[in-house]
Amino acid sequence: MNLTLKIWRQDGPTARGELVTYQVPDISPDMSFLEMLDVLNERLNAEGKEPVAFDSDCREGICGMCGLMISGDAHGPEKTTTCQLHMRSFKDGETITIEPWRATAFPVLRDLVVDRTAFDRIIQAGGFISANTGAAPKAEAILVPKENADRAFMAAECIGCGACVAACPNASGMLFMGAKVTHLGELPQGQPERAQRVAAMVATHDAEGFGGCTNIGECSHACPKGIPLDVISQLNADMRKAKSGRL
Amino acid sequence: MTETLNKPEGVDADYYSVGAPIADTKAPAGPIENKWTLRKFDASLVNPANRRKLSVIIVGTGLAGAAAGATLGEAGYHVKSFCFQDSPRRAHSIAAQGGINAAKNYKEDGDSIYRLFYDTVKGGDYRARETNVYRLAEVSANIIDQCVAQGVPFAREYGGLLDNRSFGGVQVSRTFYARGQTGQQLLIGAYQALERQIAAGTVEMYARHEMLELIVADGQARGIIARNLVTGEIETHLADAVVLASGGYGNVFFLSTNAMGSNVTANWRAHRKGAYFGNPCYTQIHPTCIPVSGDHQSKLTLMSESLRNDGRIWVPKRKEDCEKDPRQIPEEDRDYYLERIYPAFGNLVPRDIASRQAKNMCDEGRGVGPMVGDFRRGVYLDFADAIARLGKPAVEAKYGNLFDMYARITGENPYETPMRIYPAVHYTMGGLWVDYDLQSSIPGLFVTGEANFSDHGANRLGASALMQGLADGYFVLPNTIRDYLAKGPYPTLDENDPSVAEARTSVEDRTRRLLAINGERSVDSFHKELGHIMWEYCGMERTETGLMKAIDLIRSLRAEFWRNVRVLGAADTLNQSLEKAGRVADFLELGELMCIDALHRRESCGGHFRAESQTEDGEALRHDDEFLYVAAWEYAGGSGEGEMGAPVLHKEDLAYEFIQLKQRSYK
Ligand SMILES: Cc1cc2nc3c(=O)[nH]c(=O)nc-3n(C[C@H](O)[C@H](O)[C@H](O)COP(=O)(O)OP(=O)(O)OC[C@H]3O[C@@H](n4cnc5c(N)ncnc54)[C@H](O)[C@@H]3O)c2cc1C
Ligand code: FES
């Protein structure tokens, strides 16, 4: 395959960026999208030009490190992570635009690399269950109905990649936050801190510069793990109950 | 330090020398069931009020590092945590699929601490230290309690009880799991506990930071030099103790199932500063991975070995058939080689055997799939019989997610055409040598998780790496490190102290040198070439001549690297080529040590198969009379960048007091 790439290049957090066009010939449809970028980088290096910076680690769709806006879609045309996207999803001769996640809360560090530590700070605010090591009761002591365990698991599948924020016109982090509130809220162990958790997480979310949710649904559509929109309903319900002291 | 230095016999004399034996001095005497309780009792306590004056650096936020960080933070110590990813939640532990073992005996199927201990020692082919393994089994049940309390959503039965499955060829069901994402769920639990401590101010987090040097002052580990990967700034971090939880080094093979960034730098820098490296050649190669599809390949993807329960492995009998559509090859022209060679175990032989036979078939020219170099590197894993027997829906229910993953990566439909699989490097049992307290040969330097050598001997059982990482992090290290910290706070170290200045300057010099070479070859091209050498000569089958050849090849490749690598960009920005260059430079040294270790161990054990040491029917043959020891290697220095002296071998004899030695057989 022969492709034309338009890639966002930006030297540093405060530098001005621009889209730069590259021709990449001889791409195999069996390559992953990031392997295609590896090939480009090898060539740039050989030409004495600095390679394009982008994040990835597991390349198995689970660590959440990768994430590119590919021709306007977070993680590209398939419902998967950028690292699990393969070139057979593109056409020979296609022009592909590659940009970083764009959101106030995710500033660009260089080229396609962004700073997503705002997500960590949301978790710090309350995305945990306080259970000191050694103080845990026997695991078998508390039963958890399979239905709740399965729903908790579904929400806990979030990989924290940030595609939801990148896809949302408001750059909202509500799907990410809703997933955590649902994961912990479905479990008996998560009940004692439920009210303060949701309140603190939402306050941090807003302070970090994420936008509000207006029910567009792009987040869930872009989510490589298919986290459903109803986790946001859960978040809102918990928030209302927390405010009125009913949680 | 080295007391006696002897030259080994024969060809080995050119490669290493032998120093004084070493031994663990921390495990108390007495019955194995009492050792851990006794050790916890004897280890000094630190008054809660004094804890915040004591600081600990933890490199790594995988299961081993995040669990330790959270626990020490809760206890009130001042912790500084480091990881090279943008968030601690992304450590490579996240990718583990299958599950975590624990001796809970929920199924009443005869499991016990002792059985888990026994299975782990046997699985490790009798090359692990009994005391450490027993403790691992002992604390395993606490891990599950801890994780459930944190909200880890393990699989449950309809009644609400935790579910278990059997895994990795053992006869009991002791594996806890969260669908195919156990590592992710366990790590998120530990990550959240760590974030809670960050919020509480007991843990300072340094993400996108890479440790590039260890600071050793007056013989004690006192800090690290790290590079801020965003700004390029070289930072000095000092503490009373340092913990390395930096994971495994499978990426020395370039292609492996490890994450792209997994590397040996933290361990290797500590090794160069005096920490002994234990059994570096023990590597695990997993038989069911998706094969290489071409030269562009950047990593390999593991597929759960549960597939071997229903899939049948075969290659064509004749080379001429290898290019054919497999569905056109009639039954009589297929060679179900595992069923043929191992009629009793068939497709379920242990990982190392299944891997080695797949290689043999491909070496004979009977591999399938695309040509990679001179050979086709793949064998079929065929579900046609299973689909005929159980029906497609049943196969889909069991393996659907794996089939989907396979289809996504290869573009082929495994329900219609057989899957292709090939072995890939998966885990490294070797790592820095530690005693029962998980302390390395440098006082104040502790090593946990995959980064140490301690619990798996020459081969690791499935679902036990997650167990070890969390055992070390939550329960073992926090209890042993206090014995060391209780003697602190250690004297304040000045940033201008010669030990600090030396470490810092060496990092700065090395960075400058890497950027100044401006040669013709990319870092990746060196990494790939090293990977080929390691895979060819220090992979599934090793021979004396092959290893000697590999050592020569690695030495000249390393010399070329320091002459001819091209690393563009600057030191003071985010520079991924520079990051990779530092890691590959260390792999180029580690590779040589692995080959020397493999050369000296003239026996086959676990994942280490020496062609010269096999039974008449081609099975691994141990030599307990000569090799019942841990090989702990001391770095011997070198004059310039990339130069290495002959390492010094320290032997730790393994005494089996509780378990009797046996030779494995799967025929
Ligand atoms: C695909 C796959 C599947 C697996 N499945 C299973 C399974 O089902 N069951 C099982 O028991 N085991 C499994 N394993 C093995 C297991 O996942 C690992 O052995 C284990 O998770 C390692 O944990 P760790 O905490 O030691 O290291 P890691 O999780 O690798 O963490 C290493 C940490 O160190 C940091 N680090 C490294 N070097 C530096 C440096 N120089 N500076 C700063 N930070 C650094 C990294 O950023 C990271 O945070 C699997 C492994 C793979 C590859
Ligand atoms: S690199 Fe880990 S999810 Fe893509």
UniProtKB/TrEMBL annotation, chain A:
Superkingdom of this protein's organism: Bacteria
EC assignment: 1.3.5.1
InterPro entries referenced in this protein's UniProt entry, alphabetically: 2Fe-2S_ferredoxin-like_sf, 2Fe2S_fd_BS, 4Fe4S_Fe-S-bd, 4Fe4S_Fe_S_CS, Beta-grasp_dom_sf, Helical_ferredxn, SDH/FRD_Iron-Sulfur, Succ_DH/fum_Rdtase_Fe-S
Any one GO BP annotation for this protein: respiratory electron transport chain
Swiss-Prot/TrEMBL keywords: 2Fe-2S, 3Fe-4S, 4Fe-4S, Iron, Iron-sulfur, Metal-binding, Oxidoreductase, Tricarboxylic acid cycle
Residue stretches making up the 4Fe-4S ferredoxin-type domain: 149-180
Protein name: succinate dehydrogenase
Native source organism of the sequence: Nostocoides australiense Ben110
From TrEMBL, chain B:
Entries under Gene3D superfamilies matching the protein: FAD/NAD(P)-binding domain, Fumarate reductase/succinate dehydrogenase flavoprotein-like, C-terminal domain, Succinate dehydrogenase/fumarate reductase flavoprotein, catalytic domain
Enzyme class name: oxidoreductase
Molecular function as annotated in GO: electron transfer activity; flavin adenine dinucleotide binding; steroid dehydrogenase activity, acting on the CH-CH group of donors; succinate dehydrogenase (quinone) activity
Domain Fumarate reductase/succinate dehydrogenase flavoprotein-like C-terminal: 527-666
Topological relation to the membrane, as annotated: Peripheral membrane protein
Keyword Hydrolase: no
Domain of life, per lineage: Bacteria
UniProt xrefs under InterPro entries: FAD-dep_OxRdtase_2_FAD-bd, FAD/NAD-bd_sf, Fum_R/Succ_DH_flav-like_C_sf, Fum_Rdtase/Succ_DH_flav-like_C, SdhA/FrdA/AprA, Succ_DH/Fum_Rdt_flav_su, Succ_DH/fumarate_Rdtase_cat_sf
Reactions accelerated catalytically: a quinone + succinate = fumarate + a quinol
Family designation: Belongs to the FAD-dependent oxidoreductase 2 family. FRD/SDH subfamily.
Protein's UniProt name: succinate dehydrogenase
Organism: Nostocoides australiense Ben110
Classification lineage: Bacteria, Bacillati, Actinomycetota, Actinomycetes, Micrococcales
